[in-house]
Amino acid sequence: MVIVGGPHSLFIPDLPKSRGGRWRLRGLRLVHTHLEAEPLTQDDLMDLVFLRLDCVAAVYVDRNGGATYFETAYILPGNGEGQNRGWAILPPIPCHDPDLDFMALVKSLEDEFERNRLAIPANSPGEDRAILVSVTGADRHAASQSMDELVELAATGGIVAADTIIQRQREINRKYLIGKGKLSEVVLRALQCGVDLLIFDQELNPSQVRSITDKTELRVVDRTQLILDIFAQRAQSREGKIQVEMAQLKYLLPRLGVKDDALSRLTGGIGARGPGETTLEINRRRTKDRIANLEKQLKELKKRRGQTRAKRARKDIPIISIVGYTNAGKSTLLNALTHSSVFVENKLFATLDPTSRRLRFPRDFEVIITDTVGFIRDLPKDLMDSFSATLEELHEADLLLHVVDISNPQFEEQMEAVVRILEGLDLNRKPVIVVFNKRDLVTPEFVEQKIRRHGGVAVSALSARTLEPLISAMQDNVEDLLERIMGGIAQTPSENEEIPERELSPAL
User: Fold this and answer.
1) Whole-angstrom distance, CA of residue 275 vs CA of residue 253
2) Whose CA is closest to 178, among 227, 228, 132, 142?
3) Cα separation, 373 vs 323, whole angstroms
4) Over the range 93-117, which residues count as b (16 or more CB within 10 Å of their CB) and which as e?
5) Which of 23, 112, 377, 402 could make a disulfide contact with 77, Cβ separation 3.0–4.6 Å?
6) Helix H segments across 157-258?
C-alpha cells in the first residue's frame, strides 16, 4: 500500500483485520520517509503500538532525494527491567546494505509473545485472560484496595488477571476515560501478555466503550457488566434468572449501537421514506418488549412473595435477615445456625437466591432467619432495581444481622458500603447486630479492639462453639418483640446456664 502524506504527517486508512488473534502482530510494516533526516517521532511509536505493526521504519533522505539510512523500531515481547517504553529502536542502518534478517526477527518476536501468553496460568483451556484498568482520583491506598476487589471479581467470573494498571489523574478523559499515553501502555501490555480483553474498574458510558474499542481493537468490559455477568452465572432460581436478565437488558439498551448500513433508511421521496426499521431499531424494540415482559413476570412473583409474607405475619413469627458484604460468610452462618446445607464457596456472590429457614432458640421460641444477596460497593443501579422484589424481604425483617469479614483488611470500608446501601433502602432504622465473622483468622486483641469500637459480637461461622454470644444477643433483641406480640414474658435462663447446641433445631 502506497500512502502519500505531507512533510509532517500522513493519514493511514483503515487496515485489514488482525490475523490469527488480537495478541499477535498485524503482519504489516510501516516504512515512510523523514525528509529532514529526523529520528522516529512519538506519533510513529504510537502507531507502532496501537496498530500492532511488525515494525515502523523511517528512511532518511538527503538533499537530492536519495535514501541514506533507515531507523527501525519494534515492540518488545517482555516487560522486564529497563523496558519501561515497551519498544526497541535499532541504530540507523545503511539503505544500500541493510544487514537485518527482518523475517527471522519477527518470527522470534511472535514466538516470544506466544510463550508469554502460555505462561499466564489458567484454570481451564478456554478461560479468559484480561488486563484490569482503574482510572481514579483517589489516593494510592484506596485505588489499590479497589483494584484488589476487581481482581477478586474477575476471578469469580472465571477471568485470569494477566496484569493490573492504575492511573491516578485529576481530570478524567471524556473520550477514553484513561489518558492516551496510558492507553498505549495498556495496549502494549495486552499484546505482551497475549490478552484481548480489558476490564475497567469504573462504569463506562456507551461512547467511551466504542472509542476504546475502536482505538485498541480489544474487547472492553466495565465493572458493572462484569458484576452482571457474575450474577448471570450464579443465578439458580427462576426469579433470580429473571431479575438478572432484566438488569442485563437495561444495561444493554443504551449500548445498542451496532449499525447495519445495508438496512439503513434511504433518503429520498416525500418525507424521506425508507425501507423500514433498521436492525438497530429492531433490536431496541425487541429489547424493550422483553424488559416489559420480564417486569410483568416479576410483578407476579412479587405478589406471591407478598402472600407468603402475609402468612408469616399471621403466624406472628419474628423474622431475622442476614445482610452484609459479599463473601463475608452469610450463607455459612445460616448453615451453622440452622444445620442447613445452603451452597457456600469462597467467591464473591456465591449465592444470589434468598433462603429462609426456621430456627428454634433455647428460650423456646421460633424465628424465620433469611439469607439475602450480598452487597458490594457501587452496586449497579439496574441490578438494585431488578432485585427490588428480593430486597423487599428486608423490609419485613424484625432484626438484621450485619455480617462482617473481620479478617479482610478492608472490612471497615465494606461496613460503610453496606450501611450506605441499607440507608438507600430505608432500612437504617431497624435494629442491627454487627457480627464479626472469621475471628479465628485474626488475633483476640484485634477482635476486642474492634468490638469496643463498633459494638457487636465476634464468631467463627465454621465453629458452632463460638455462636453462643450471637444466639444470646439475638434472643435478647427478639424477646421484646415477642412480649408485645404474645402479651407474655419469655422465661430467661440463669447467667450460668449454658446454651446447648442440640437445642438449635435443623431447618424445617
Assistant:
1) 23
2) 132
3) 8
4) eeeeeeeeeeeeebeebbeebeebb
5) 112
6) 180-193, 206-216, 223-234, 238-252
The count of other CB atoms within 10 Å of the CB of residue 147 is 19
Backbone CA torsion sign across 152, 154, 155, 160? negative
pLDDT, tens digit, 9 for 90 and up, residues 407-455: 998 899 899 989 988 888 888 888 899 999 999 999 999 999 999 999 8
Among 112-121, 381-390, 436-445, the range with the most confident prediction by mean pLDDT is: 436-445
- pLDDT per position as a tens digit, 177-195: 888 888 888 888 888 888 8
* DSSP element (H, E) containing 221: strand 219-222
| 404 conformational bin, left if phi > 0, alpha if psi -120 to 50, beta if neither | beta
Q: Which of 182, 135, 134, 156 is nearest to 234 (CA)?
A: 156
Q: Which domains can be identified in the chain, with CATH numbers?
A: 29-119 (no CATH), 128-229 (3.40.50.11060), 316-503 (3.40.50.300)
Give the C-alpha separation, 419 to 427, whole Å: 9
**CA–CA separation, 43 and 208 (whole Å):** 22
Which phi and psi (to 5°) does residue 195 adopt?
-120, 160
pLDDT over 70 at 489, yes or no: no
d(CA 447, CA 439): 7
- pTM, 2 dp: 0.78
